[in-house]
């Protein structure tokens, strides 16, 4: 298992896009990575389509130094996630330390609020294209865009190439 020994943090909050949270988690676990979910508190969060996800840790319990990578799921959860200072600090730590960051769909909102997109090549759901560009990013309409340690994707049909790229970069 090529990701054995790797630790990945995934944010979670209510109204996450069910596939955009669970597909990456299951894919990473298949490869041997340990994946922890972190939310506002240690509780069960419900996705847009009713799938539950229980947070292992609250945001305040997270030390980003303990993780090799970060995943930010889409849905409506990113609009909530970006309001937490600890979430912003974790994203900024991962960026400053060139640790892998994956974002899909509306997750770009969190990276915008963390102010880490200036000069980056990204994709997202087309609905936030203007937001991404206004944050200084170069938006590209592709299933997955890899810009160094930042991997972005558009929507659920793009999950296979997104997670292949994420796993490939994490394995290096």
From TrEMBL:
Cross-referenced PROSITE patterns: PEPTIDASE_C56_PFPI (PS51276)
CDD domains: GATase1_PfpI_like
Pfam families: DJ-1_PfpI
Superkingdom of the organism of origin: Bacteria
Molecular-function annotations in GO: peptidase activity
Domain annotation DJ-1/PfpI: ranges: 6-166
InterPro entries: C56_PfpI-like (IPR006286), Class_I_gatase-like (IPR029062), DJ-1/PfpI (IPR002818)
Gene3D superfamilies tied to this protein: 3.40.50.880
Coiled coil: none
Entry keyword set: Hydrolase, Protease
Any single GO BP term: proteolysis
SUPFAM superfamilies: Class I glutamine amidotransferase-like
NCBIfam families named in the record: PfpI
PANTHER family, per database record: DJ-1 PROTEIN, DJ-1_PFPI DOMAIN-CONTAINING PROTEIN
Family statement drawn from the similarity comment of this UniProt entry: Belongs to the peptidase C56 family.
Official protein name in the record: Protease
Gene source species: Bacillus taeanensis
Lineage: Bacteria, Bacillati, Bacillota, Bacilli, Bacillales
């Amino acid at each position: 298992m090529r990701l054995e020994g790797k630790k990945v943090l995934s944010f979670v909050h209510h109204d996450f896009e069910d596939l955009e949270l669970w597909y990456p988690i299951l894919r990473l676990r298949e490869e041997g990575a340990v994946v922890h979910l972190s939310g506002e508190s240690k509780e069960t969060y419900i996705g847009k389509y009713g799938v539950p996800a229980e947070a292992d840790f609250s945001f305040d319990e997270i030390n980003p130094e303990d993780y090799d990578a970060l995943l930010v799921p889409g849905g409506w959860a990113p609009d909530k996630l970006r309001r937490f200072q600890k979430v912003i600090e974790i994203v900024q730590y991962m960026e400053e330390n060139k640790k892998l960051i994956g974002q899909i769909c509306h997750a770009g909102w969190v990276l915008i609020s963390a102010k880490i997109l200036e000069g980056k090549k990204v994709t997202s759901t087309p609905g936030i294209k203007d937001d991404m560009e206004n944050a200084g990013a170069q938006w590209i309409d592709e299933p997955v865009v890899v810009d160094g340690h930042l991997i972005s994707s558009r929507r659920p049909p793009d999950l296979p190439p997104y997670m292949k790229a994420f796993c490939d970069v994490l394995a290096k």
